[in-house]
Amino acid sequence: MSENLTLQLTKMIKTKRSRVFAAWTEPAALMQWFAPGPMRPDSIDVDLRVGGIFRWAMSLPSPQGGQVMKVVFSGEFVEIETDRLLQFTWRSEGNPADETLVTVSFADVDGGTEVALRQERILNSEIYQRNKGGWESMLEKLGALCTEAVGANA
Q1: Are 122 and 128 in contact (CB under 8 A)?
Q2: Full-model pTM
Q3: Number of C-beta neighbours around residue 25 at 10 A
Q4: Domain coordinates in residue numbering, the chain
Q5: Does domain 5-37+80-153 have CATH number 3.30.530.20?
């Protein structure tokens, strides 16, 4: 039975909005941060237009036996407002019926940019917790990447 949960997270990042938006939309930047925990992006394809498709492939060596665990997410951009908003469907290629809707907004705040992430239509609390941990980890990586980039350009 579906619980239809909604996850909401915010993260303040000490850089300008356009830099954070670019980190969410440019494949070269996404390759530096878009995978949770110890996972690493393998490939990222982004067709940044309404109706455009994206695909993120991530992998992690298994602690037992050294096999590689691969996870692939894909979706379609629903709404795009440059430097302000991204909205896209989000599904695991292993469970395409479990599609959710993710909205990421970018707002100027004192000292930087507030990134607000909302993921709707989450089927159950187990998936909610897994997604929460994944997004929190990735937002931390995003913050570190954008802050380092600002420091390097200072």
Answers
A1: yes
A2: 0.90
A3: 17
A4: 5-37+80-153
A5: yes
